[in-house]
Amino acid sequence: MERKPGVERTENLADQSRDIPGAHSGTIVLAIPSELIHHILKYLGNADLVNTAIVCPSFRFLSQRVIYRNVKPTETMVIPCLRCFASYPHLASFTRTLVLADATRYYDVFSNYFNLLRSALLNASSLTDLTILLDGPYARYLHGCSFRLRSLTTTLDWDRDFIKLITEQTELRNAMFGGKFVNDMVLPSDTLKKLTRVSGSPLVLAAVVPSRNIKEVELCLLQQALFKDDILNTASNILSYSIGPLTALQIITHLSDTPSALAALKAIAKNLPRLNSFAFYSSDGAVSQELLEDFPEFLSCFECLRSLTLMSRNKADALHDKTFTATLASMWHASCPSLQSISLAGSIWLHNTRYGWVTLTDLDRLLRERQGLLLSRQKYWTEADLTTIPIEEAKSKLEENKEDVEQGNQMEQQMIVLRDSLLQFGGP
């Protein structure tokens, strides 16, 4: 019997099974809904998916959907990947996430490279998450693409062609703009209406944040001269014009001397007193004990700060001294009572109304103990003769149960807040 590509009907496969070893098991598999098979295939690695793709036409289609859904080629495979997308539009249409390094940094790319890039991206019609680390004024090669991005990370120059590109991306919600800002570039007021998270330099943020619904910002100040109180005062004042309102701020910078750093931080707190989350990452320099001891001056300016994260690449600075940092949480909480979680270079503390500041290990233990206590109380009430229990004792136990439930709910909520914080700024 002649094989018909793509046919999944069980009766046809049964006829074919007379001459095909193992076809009976394949018949059973293909009788499963394709959505379920697709879900199962998502748990396989690419090497296994290549093998499943040669089973039959149906498996090939489903395997290709998984293989090409998230594409992150290495530097040496960027050009072959683009050639594949340009030559096989149906494969490019499967892609939702695409990460492209800057091939021009590693090769003397041929003159048609940018046209190849354009041809590939024109075929990626379902793309929602794009990372394109291509330095320079090349945004015009992305004009007219049919995809509607929800997330964009790019180092393309912020010029007129780039403005046109992001004007086309009406669904953009999360963006990292790392390219060079061209002077006098103005972003039309009716663009990026759905953007809520953005990362960039002060000039880029000044063009994006005001009058938009921005809730989370990453401010990049990678030059030492930029982390000054006057610059931070201007930048944070601009951020205050978000209509989000702005609730979370992360700063990546080169840390200078302690007095200058403290003055810069205080400028932020003065202009953005209602932040819920603040994170500071020192890409260079050392976080000193003096700065950490003076942090109450900075924290006292916040009205409702709940999460504080401090990170540093310098493993020898005070932030990595666990003995010194062990007492900071309670000291800082005295100046900022709204604080609920503090993360210092991987050491995490959470505030509990009953137990004070506890580590993640402590919190996990307390949650297990609470679960055991609730089970024992449930057993007590199940086995007890309610007619023999005095009213006062019953009221007392009910109050204990209510208090324990409230404590448990608080601890579980803190775990959720901490998880959101780690997702938002990256784990320590």
Summary?
This protein is of the alpha/beta class.
Q: Approximately what portion of the residues adopt beta-strand conformation? A: 15-25%
User: What would you report as the Rg, rounded to the nearest angstrom?
Assistant: 28 Å
Shape by Cα distribution? globular
Structural category: alpha/beta
Terminal Cα span: 60 Å
**Strand order of the main beta sheet, please?**
1-2-3-4-5-6-7-8-9-10-11-12-13
Discrete helix count: 18
Uncertain runs with pLDDT below 50, 5 residues or more?
1-28, 423-428
Average pLDDT across residues?
Answer: 81
Helix content class: 40-55%
What about the largest sheet? 13 strands, mixed
Number of strands: 13
Describe the secondary structure blueprint for this structure.
Elements (H helix, E strand, L loop, with lengths): L9 H7 L6 H8 L3 H8 L4 H7 L4 H11 L2 E2 L6 H10 L1 H4 L4 E4 L12 H11 L5 E8 L14 E6 L3 H9 L5 E4 L19 E4 L1 H7 L7 E6 L7 H11 L8 E7 L3 H14 L5 E8 L4 H5 L1 H5 L7 E6 L9 H4 L2 H8 L5 E4 L2 E6 L3 E4 H24 L7 H35 L3
Parallel strand pairs: 1-2, 2-3, 3-4, 4-5, 5-6, 6-7, 7-8, 8-9, 9-10, 10-11
Antiparallel strand pairs: 11-12, 12-13
Helix pairs in contact: 1-2, 3-5, 4-5, 6-8, 11-12, 17-18
